[in-house]
Specification:
The structure is a single chain. This protein is of the alpha+beta class and about 325 residues long. The protein has 10 helices and 15 strands. It folds into 2 domains: about 130 residues, Rossmann fold, CATH 3.40.50; about 130 residues, Sandwich (Tumour Suppressor Smad4), CATH 2.60.200. Strands 5, 6, 7, 8, 9, 10, 11, 12, 13, 14 and 15 form an 11-stranded antiparallel beta sheet that branches.
Length: about 325
């Protein structure tokens, strides 16, 4: 695990090679288990679009999520060029982190449930159309987040929201990958008992102590907008949206879920909301020094304190010349 808790660390956009994008080889990396579309049809559509472009391209499929990092590293070693993630949030996170580390352009073929990253950038949700963006688009520097040096594209969280994501993934594997399953899974999780933790939060140098059920760090303006949060504005200017939820009853949690579904979360009086470039987070209740964190829905274990920061223009992403409407 990479860890860097220096407040002076500067994350900068990796410089693109002098070589034009059109001359770079393309490697599409897919997770065989991600997304809710027929994999054979999707892979065929991607391959057809790449073939029609005449570009030097290949499609690699990881049999399991555990195989994806190794497959991506091998591809970057053998054919440094445009790295394309075809899948859901976890696939995007893995490939984007490698693209950032290797200073390579990153592209997306969205195959997930919500696809916030692609939608926020106006990338089409149709696999063939998204593949054509890979071959005809241009590079745009995009802000990302980091937790102790680990990259995230959309959000990071601890506590209750992290549990929601973990349980949602288990329910999707059982019942299918769609939004109805995601909503019902959240409802089931919220009705359980949940423990609060006393945390010290240093938000851009402002210190506070809060007993919280969860802390959420958002880096996607579209997701914030669809929750009805004004923090979408600070995300759009390169900051983090920081949401902290203190103790709440089951009824209160259900109310939050309904407000979020109705895009009216800004009216939740018991939700602490902040904008920040950097947040330091630590336990002050004598708990364990390791904490589980969700990064774009993927679970990792980190050592406290956590340093969460937003990095402007840190990732070069291939986007459409004419982006689709954000919705």
């Amino acid at each position: 695990m990479i860890s860097d808790t220096s407040p002076d660390r500067a994350w900068s956009a990796p410089a693109l090679p002098v070589t034009a994008l059109d001359d770079l080889p393309i490697t599409v990396l897919m997770n065989a288990r991600s997304g809710n579309k027929d994999k054979a049809d999707v892979r065929g559509a991607i391959a057809d679009a790449l073939r029609a472009s005449g570009r030097d391209a290949q499609v690699l499929v990881a049999r399991s999520p555990r195989d994806l990092p190794r497959l991506a590293r091998q591809a970057a070693d053998a054919r440094p060029g445009i790295l394309v993630a075809a899948g859901g949030d976890g696939t995007l996170n893995t490939v984007a982190a490698l693209a950032h580390a290797r200073s390579l352009p990153f592209a997306v073929i969205p195959l997930g449930t919500f696809n916030y990253f692609a939608r926020d950038l106006g990338i089409p949700l149709d696999p063939a159309a998204a593949t054509r963006v890979v071959t005809t688009g241009h590079a745009r520097p995009v802000a990302v987040g980091f937790v102790n040096g680990r990259l995230f594209l959309n959000n990071a969280s601890i506590g209750l929201y992290r549990k929601l994501l973990e349980h949602r993934e288990a329910h999707k594997k059982r019942f299918g990958r769609n939004r109805a399953v995601a909503l019902l899974s959240a409802l089931v999780t919220l009705l359980r008992e949940h423990r609060t933790h006393l945390l010290r939060l240093d938000i851009d140098g402002r210190t506070m102590m809060l007993p919280v059920l969860t802390v959420f760090f958002g880096r996607n303006a579209l997701q914030m907008e669809q929750l009805g949060l004004d923090e979408a504005l600070c995300v759009a200017r390169g900051e983090l949206a920081v949401l902290a939820l203190p103790r709440a009853s089951r009824l209160g949690l259900l109310g939050l879920l309904l407000r979020g579904a109705a895009a009216r979360l800004e009216y939740a009086d018991d939700l602490h909301q902040y904008c920040a470039r950097q947040v330091r987070l630590d336990r002050v209740d004598g708990g364990a020094r390791r904490i589980r964190v969700a990064l774009d829905g993927e679970m990792i274990d980190c050592t406290l304190p956590l340093v969460v920061e937003s990095a402007s223009a840190a990732l070069q992403v291939i986007v459409p010349v004419r982006p689709e409407a954000r919705q």
